[in-house]
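Minimal example, chain plus phosphoribosyl ATP.
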Amino acid sequence: MDRTTSTIPLSTNPINGDGRLKIALQKSGRLSEMSVGLLEKAGISLTKSRDQLFCRAHNFPLDVFLVRDDDIPAFLVTDVCQVGIMGQNVLWEKQALFTEKYTTLEEVIALGFGHCRLSIAAPTSFTYNSVESLNGKTIATSYSGLLATYLRDRGVEADIVTMEGAVEVAPRTHLADLICDLVSTGNTLTSNGLQEQEVILQSQAILVKNSNLNEDIQVIYEKLLSRIRAVLRADNSRYIMLNSPIAALDSIKAVLPGSASPTVMPLQGREDMVAVHAVCEEEVFWTTMEELQRNGANSILVVPIEKMLD
Ligand code: PRT
Ligand code: ZN
């Protein structure tokens, strides 16, 4: 496509002129390693230096911007980058705060890491019965947009104190009665004498794209997405190999998890046994292996899959 006919105002942003897809990742924090690792697993090799804002892929038309996670939505809407990896919590908070501004951002795929939840927590001494207990109280949070929406939807009137960090200390310092913050293990809440009362949302890392991609960037994006999907599928799949008595084949096939059509091959010198190989698109637990064994299978091997493409 002729770039001058693109709906993207390329003239205001020379970075877009070079025909390379730009992705924004968190520079340093909980999502950084997994985000860069995902690209590496997708066969994209990046310059190792992480303290720079910008990395170039050597073997794929992709440039990586390493920024603060809260800035990623802005990098996308301004079209400095066309895709990004961020927590759903970050995208949804921006969309809750600025209803018009982030409408062109699309959640493409959940990436299976960075799991957490946004919860309201109260000091253990606080008598909490239901959301109504929040009426007239003060709640400290870094997620004022999502919290305000949650309270409004439930007809609760509470004051929100916005804090950038260390939200969990707010009740102890009498800045607020309760907090609303991200929780993963719950250890931070416990060690600050707080108890989780309401889960506002569940979140994980997602790939987000700007909907206004021009045609050449769209082609690169689709190639990247296909590789990411393949990595996620391979990560979630196992290759299982076992020997099965022919008489037990049906019951063994029935136990194999998430495998539609296993390959069955003869075993040399054994009239009564066959080899069974299958891709299982889910975790293979010890209990499953034990059940296969109980059904007559032996020499059971479960191995990870490195790459997978249909
Ligand atoms: O510097 P930058 O702005 O980029 O990073 P940041 O400090 O804002 O974010 P960071 O790296 O802490 O988190 C990045 C993303 O990771 C978040 O937006 C979430 O999507 C996701 N994530 C997953 C979490 C957590 N788990 C998490 N536990 N983000 C923050 N926390 C914090 C939480 O705020 C609380 O302080 O960890 C503490 C609670 O953890 P537990 O395990 O004690 O419950
Ligand atoms: Zn941040």
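The helical segments are 32-41, 72-77, 88-97, 144-153, 187-191, 215-235, 249-255, 286-294. The longest strand covers residues 270-280.
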